[in-house]
Amino acid sequence: MPKRLSSTPTDLLFRLDGRVAFISGAAGHLGCRIARALAEVGAHVVLAGRDGERLEALQGELSSEGLQCSVSVVDVTDEQMVKHSFSGIARVHGRLDVLVNNAYEGPGGTMKTASAENFLRAYDVGVVGAFRCIDAARALLRTAAEDTGHASIINIASMYGVVSPDLRVYDSLEKSNPPFYGSAKAALIQLTRYAAVEYAREGVRVNAVSPGPFPKQELQVVNPAFHQRLCARIPLGRTGEPDELKGVVVFLASDAATYVTGANLPVDGGWTAW
């Protein structure tokens, strides 16, 4: 059973001091901000991904600010690498409180330009890769749940796992958000629901976050017309800033969300509310 939180001050509910978090795709556009968020509230964050050089650069940046982190070079499509990564966490930390499945890979495109290989790769990284991490981390998550009353899995999905892209905003077929991306994210949302129900008895909560448009800042300079079309499509009238995901992820990872599981939280400026 979860520990009673009624006597915990509200601000401390969001702290992760003494806890361990793992994030795949940690060096990416959104991943690096999520990793920073978890470290800023006290977690030791395992920065995972394929690009060791970028991960080490992020580690250096965070460590220079006194934040706790380490690097695990891992390809989530390689089952043995995944198992090895979590075995390392077991040796060093003996537990895992937060697992963030953020890895994804794939080009742009549409039904006309997509290939079967695109679908297989998107699913292998974004869905099966998440499953591999969840499966390999299960014992570590259970240990954390026995200590604090809960552990948290957060799957980074997308608004395009819920609705179709508006292809009219894109400049070309090749640059459009592709069908295999949304299909993989929809599958990840369903995996979230399934795992939430199965793992609830173990005290492990499973939720998804579905970001909306979070383009890189240089897009506004390189392609202002496209950025304006995006903004016109969003009820809040602007695209998201990566830091606007930080509070949502911290909430789902922390004691503030001990009764939240099986949810998919959109962070899309209202896009899916139309």
Structure summarized in a few sentences:
The protein is α/β, with parallel strands linked by helices. The chain is 41% helix and 14% strand.
Structure overview:
The chain is of the alpha/beta class and 274 residues long. The chain has a single domain (11-266), classed as 3-Layer(aba) Sandwich (Rossmann fold), CATH 3.40.50. Helix content is 41%, strand content 14%. It has eight helices and seven strands; from the N terminus they run E-H-E-H-E-H-E-H-E-H-E-H-H-H-E. The protein has helices at 31-40, 52-63, 79-92, 116-148, 179-199, 219-222, 224-233, 246-253, and strands spanning 20-23, 44-49, 69-73, 98-101, 151-156, 204-211, 264-267. The chain has a seven-stranded parallel β-sheet, sandwiched between helices. Strand 2 (44-49), helix 2 (52-63) and strand 3 form a beta-alpha-beta unit. Helix 1 (31-40) packs across helix 8, helix 3 (79-92) runs parallel beside helix 4 (116-148) and helix 4 (116-148) packs parallel to helix 5 (179-199). The termini are far apart. The mean pLDDT is 96.
Which tags fit this structure?
274 residues; alpha/beta; Rossmann fold; seven-stranded parallel sheet; 14% strand; globular
Task: Give the arrangement of secondary structure elements.
Layout: E1 20-23, H1 31-40, E2 44-49, H2 52-63, E3 69-73, H3 79-92, E4 98-101, H4 116-148, E5 151-156, H5 179-199, E6 204-211, H6 219-222, H7 224-233, H8 246-253, E7 264-267
Parallel strand pairs: 1-2, 1-4, 2-3, 4-5, 5-6, 6-7
Helix pairs in contact: 1-8, 3-4, 4-5
